Amino acid sequence: MDRLSLGRFLVSGVLAVVGTVLIQNIWGALLHGLDAHPGRRDAASVFFVSQLGKYLPGSVWPVVAQMQFGRRWGVPRAVMFAANVLLLGAVTASGIAVGAVLLPWASPRGLSHYWWLVLLLVPLLAGLHPRTVPAVLDMLLRRIGREPLGTRMSPRGLAAAGAWSLASWLVLGAHVAVLVGAFHGVGLREVAASVGGMGLAWAAGIAFIPAPAGAGVRDAVLVLTLTPITGSSQALTVALASRLLLLLADVLLAALGALARRRVGPSVRAS
Q1: How does pLDDT run along the chain (271 residues), one tens digit per residue?
Q2: In angstroms, rounded to a whole number, what is the distance separating the alpha carbons of residues 138 and 125?
Q3: Which UniProt keywords apply (predicted)?
């Protein structure tokens, strides 16, 4: 990583932090869309602290932690679970969508390489319909003798989550593009590869549940999408640097979240 200057590393690191905050905003928008209204600061601190659990095998621990915190807010566990399922779906669908739109422009043969991404969007978008996840959860709850949620995702909440998703990919793609700039000039082609590659890589990491934080999978996909532009060794360096910076961003935000929870007690406005 000798070509990555400290200044470039810091700029990319700041973008990694901002991108991670934007992902938290997706979760917050989905909670509001499900008519759960924890205090914004308290919800953010819980989200960032719980995200450290994704580095454990199974990648389900953030969901478990957030469901536990939901009880303190008076939010049913099923609602917290629905918000997390929708978060994973929104991040995956938007990541694939960004990849499908941008990666064909990243190389002369991009369209022939990535046309299949469009096929994955159909079931994902169907699953993100405001009625789908709550309806499926209601059916499962009835089967085990529990009360159904009795709530639906508001279209406004889903639209807000979509907007935050797009913003997060633009920022996280810029985070990668800054690193790419250490080895290659950055123009529209490089930006398309960085934003589209990051979206597709993150979606692949989420889909492979056993890998902690998509370890290996996310990095491999990012390397594959960047190699036509930077070469394989430089693409690997960028992927590893991105992984390190995003890990540091998670640790920093978790520390700030834990500090905030010590200073301010939990708040809730649930209805």
Answers
A1: 557 788 999 999 999 999 999 999 999 999 988 888 887 888 888 899 888 888 877 667 787 878 877 777 778 887 888 888 888 888 988 998 898 888 888 776 655 666 676 777 777 777 767 677 677 777 776 776 666 666 777 888 889 999 999 999 999 999 999 999 999 888 899 999 999 999 999 988 887 766 665 677 889 999 989 998 888 899 999 999 999 999 999 999 999 988 876 765 555 444 4
A2: 20
A3: Cell membrane, Membrane, Transmembrane, Transmembrane helix
Residue type, 102: L
φ and ψ at 154, to 5 degrees? -75, 140
- Structure tokens that stand for 257 in this block: 């979240």
b/e map 48-75, b = 16+ CB within 10 Å? bbbbbbbeeeebebbbebbbebbeebeb
Look at residues 48, 34, 4 and name the one whose alpha carbon lies nearest to residue 260. 48
| Residues near 181 by beta carbon (within 8 Å), at least 6 away in sequence | 8, 190
Count of CB atoms within 10 A of residue 34's CB?
A: 25
Q: Which residues have C-beta within 8 Å of that of residue 233, sequence separation ≥ 6?
A: none
| Alpha helix (H) residue ranges in the chain | 6-33, 40-50, 61-73, 77-102, 110-114, 117-127, 132-143, 155-180, 188-207, 217-230, 232-263
Model's pTM, two decimal places? 0.85
